[in-house]
Design a protein that fits this description.
Layout: E1 6-7, E2 31-38, E3 42-50, H1 61-65, E4 68-70, E5 73-77, E6 83-86, H2 88-101, H3 109-122, E7 134-143, E8 156-165, E9 177-181, H4 199-214, E10 219-223, E11 231-234, E12 238-243, E13 246-249, H5 260-271, E14 276-278, H6 283-292, E15 295-302, E16 306-315, E17 318-321, H7 329-342, E18 353-355
Parallel strand pairs: 1-3, 9-10, 9-16, 13-14
Antiparallel strand pairs: 2-3, 2-8, 4-7, 5-6, 5-7, 6-18, 7-8, 10-11, 12-13, 12-15, 15-16, 16-17
Bound molecules: pyridoxal-5'-phosphate (PLP).
């Protein structure tokens, strides 16, 4: 690819943390990618530099009016030693749509892809190899223009940072989580920006998440903002319900994030001829299916955990156990298939992975 990217290497590489201590998002690699936008110059000066603080005016739009969007994706080191990205063009598409929702400019696909490839190559020794680990990549776009007033910033920064992350499940065996059904707070309303990966959506979710945590739940299940009846998504995951032999997931109506894992799971289910429906699903339908014994499995999908089985729902004062709190067959098959493709352990007929040539 013919994109000139200057590379300034650090003189002070950090010691590599041990695989066991990774956690999620605690450590950052030695370098970062950055490029700036102005009306006059367009996107300019793309470069890899030592990981460092940003220079931002205290009046920058991101600090006042929440003009920030980001992405979350992983570079996987396979057992064959190759490093792969998973459907990175989908992250670009979503980031472009998020930028449009916030009236911000964004880089073209080739620059986005190259920003990821160059950073991974520069910090290649940070891509861990232990089962379940990965290098998490965080492309970020912020409004850096200094002004007070509500309009889209005309000076922007696009940067990518990277963080080695451990297996979501410590032992690498998937474990079911307990989810709180949120009936008081809302994450996103129709016509709002719920489909954008904007920082503001996560700020809006903190109160409910912290109250759920105090009650002993890992994340919240959001319901629609108006009736609090239809299911939307779970914390940082999309959600699937297996009722009888059919798998159901809420449709993309603008209030939930169009998850890349969600899209991949839908395609895998279609391939295996498992009935899959994208349609509104109400809490009453789920509770009824639970009562009749038809609610077989529930799982969340997202980059962090890939597939996360739900073992129980907290609805008001009741705890609804799903599949006896155990991991369902479908959840574990999907987890296996998806992670096998990501780590290069099985063929990738749909061309989802992009190898990082070293
Ligand atoms: C709110 C929300 N929903 C869903 C997802 C799942 O999206 P993906 O599968 O692209 O990681 C995420 C994670 O990024 C998220 O933050």
């Amino acid at each position: 690819m013919d994109i000139e990217i200057a590379i300034e290497k650090t003189d002070n590489p950090k010691p590599l943390p041990s695989d066991e201590s990774f956690g999620f998002g605690k450590y950052f690699t030695d370098h970062m990618f950055i490029t700036e936008y102005s009306k006059l110059l367009g996107w300019h000066a793309p470069r890899i530099v030592p990981y460092q603080n940003l220079r931002l005016d205290p009046g920058a739009a991101v600090l006042h009016y929440g003009q920030a969007i980001f992405e979350g994706m992983k570079a996987f080191r396979g057992t064959d030693g190759k490093i792969r990205l998973f459907r990175p063009e989908m992250n670009w598409k979503r980031m472009k749509e998020s930028a449009e929702r916030l009236c911000l400019e964004f880089v073209d696909l080739p620059v986005f892809i190259e920003s990821l490839l160059r950073l991974v190559r520069t910090d290649v020794h940070w891509v861990p190899s232990k089962a379940g680990t990965a290098l998490y990549l965080r492309p970020t776009l912020i409004g850096s223009e200094a002004f007070l007033g509500v309009r889209a910033a005309e000076n922007l920064m696009y940067y990518v940072i990277a963080s080695p992350v451990g297996g979501y499940y410590g032992s690498n065996a998937i474990e079911p989580v307990k989810i709180w059904v949120e009936r008081k707070y809302s994450r996103a309303a129709p016509g709002g920006m719920g489909a954008a990966k904007a920082g503001g959506n996560y700020a809006a979710s903190l109160k409910a998440a912290s109250e759920a945590k105090k009650r002993g739940f890992a994340q919240v299940l959001w319901l629609d903002a108006s009736k609090k009846e239809y299911v939307e998504e779970v914390g940082t995951m999309n959600v699937f319900f297996k009722i009888g032999d059919t798998v159901i997931t809420p449709p993309l109506g603008g209030t939930i994030l169009p998850g890349i894992t969600r899209d991949s799971v839908i395609q895998l289910l279609r391939e295996s001829k498992t009935p899959i429906e994208e349609r509104p699903i109400s809490l009453s339908e789920i509770l009824e299916a639970h009562k009749t014994g038809d609610l077989k499995e529930v799982f969340g999908t997202g980059t962090a955990a890939s597939i996360s089985p739900v073992g129980a729902f907290g609805v008001n004062d009741e705890l609804i156990s799903i599949n006896g709190g155990k991991v369902g067959t479908l959840s574990s098959e999907l987890y296996q298939t998806l992670t096998d493709i990501q780590y290069g352990r099985r063929p990738d007929p749909l061309g989802w992975t992009m190898e990082v040539s070293l």
